[in-house]
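User: Continuing from earlier, I have the next pair ready.

Assistant: Great, send them over.

User: Here they are, in order.

Assistant: Folding the first of the pair now:
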Amino acid sequence: MSIVDTAEAETARGSARFIARIADQTLLFRDFSFDDRKVTAAQVAEKLGAFPLEDFVVLHWLDNHQLETLRPNETVELKGGAKLFVIKGDGTDRFFVDGIALEWPKKTLTGANIKFLAGKDEDMELVLERKDKPDKVIDEDDEVRIGATGVEKFYTRPAEVSLTIIVNTRPKPWNKKKISFEEVVAIAYPVPPAGQEIVYTVGYFDGPPNRPEGSLTAGESVRVRDQMVFDVKFTDKS
């Protein structure tokens, strides 16, 4: 049973007094209800159908973004909410981001996932410290081996981005890692078209590897790649 199926079953039975947000290796959180203010790691794992328990690691994601492994009988306080991960694995490997101690059961993580776990903004650049060679910038899609010999140490810094995007065939310089639907529309139509009910559609291609082409709707954003192409159209529904 998936985390989504389990969460929906919980909702169908009605919510209890205390809520925990639980995610698996996808890092997608769902709300689960408990009757007690304090619950054990075993109870948390049970919500996700994590059996046998010894094959899984339960992690508590603290407010300062540190990750702590919980023993099966160790309790966590749910008052005010708690975020936890239940990941298949037989132990964890430690790493540091800007001095914050983190641990993870899987041997690899992407740059995007490391920044997410450390609570770093997407516009920050992740850098791997190296002793015998220059430090290495880790891109969003780069996989880093956490379980290597020694403890990996990362730091973040403001990203220096200098890209060119193509909006309705016109090149436009861009200095952020992401662009929103609203930003693309403003570039395409700095002066809004006449009409009382203008509806825009935004499509793109030559995008990042995980989303090379697609569309954006209001409120959405996408990671930008150099020479990424956007096509913005409008219709007047009035």
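And the other member of the pair:
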Amino acid sequence: MEEKGLPVDKVWSELKAKLAEDLTYESGLILGSMCTKPHSLARRVYTYSLDKNLGDPGLFKGSVAIEGEVVRMLGRLLSNPEAFGAIVSGGSEANLLALWAARNHSKGSEVIAPASAHISIDKAANLLGLKLIKAPLTASFQVNVQKVKRAVSNRTAALIGIAGTTSLGVVDPIEELSEIALEEHLWLHVDAAFGGLVLPFLAELGYKAPSFDFRLKGVKSITVDPHKMGLTPIPAGGILFRGKDLVKPITFNVPYLSGGNAYQFTVTGTRPAAPVIAAWAIFKALGREGFRKIVARCMKLTNLLADNLSTIPRVKLVVKPVMNVVGISFQGVEASRVAAALRSRGWALSAASNYIRIVVMPHVKRRHVEAFLKDLKEVLLKLV
């Protein structure tokens, strides 16, 4: 920090120059992110609400009430109007809270998760002192339920299933995991950070959408992120519990707040209300019908991409897309080389060891898909 400040116009000029290095969603080049440009209404509401703190409920009663409404809206979407929870910093904190509650509830020392689990599960297990057992996947990239069952012991604190894996958008057999959880009296957490705001609308659109939510009696908690397919500004990750009683083992009394005594079960004390209020505004403005239209459009482009990929020699879909996530593998050339060549043309995408991943988010347009396909064909001609 300098001794004397700069004129505001100078600060803005310098700021814009630095941020010019950032990719923009409008460019259509961002094809690997599970986030998108927030809705215009969400951006306005976010700015309007910047000074509000959910960590001091006595001062910001309206903001806290709005968070409760958002949680109830998500709960109804996920088949449990009585769900209890919070909107936190993201899926990582949401997953941490779920495992924290599960550990304290059961006193177990191990957690069983799919090999496809998000890295936040590894972080949470490490922070909580839990041994993380990774169950292998089947040929369809779902967790092997039989391997999960064999891994269960009297040390197990929780099972984890994924509803929309980060790598391929695959949904684990949550119904079967729920049965194991009920039989063994275990906590089942579903990481639906991405799929939670996709799968319910796919079902309403007539797609075959796997069961994953609170309709399954073994499910105790669900992660669902409004800042992904919910068109809400970052940070906004949702954690829902089947009932309020489940958070008691991680709830703390906070007596020193300006607004009076409060109870918290989130990791952070000070919590921005702005993204939560923005989520409320978007849910109200779009409704289920609006989200159905967004998901329908994303799936239309996903299917367009998948259909065109099937016509390109040496290109293969890793799995048939379950939602708006497409994995692409290649014959005769390493995926890393294809990814590097595409990145050199400006495309921002995800690459695994043997495939690349495209996420068709709301900011992606048909012209972007067509431009990507054109570049992919040209890249393959040079590499193969």
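Worth noting for the second one:
DSSP finds eleven helices and 13 strands in the chain. The domain at 8-38+287-383 is CATH 3.90.1150.10 (Aspartate Aminotransferase, domain 1).
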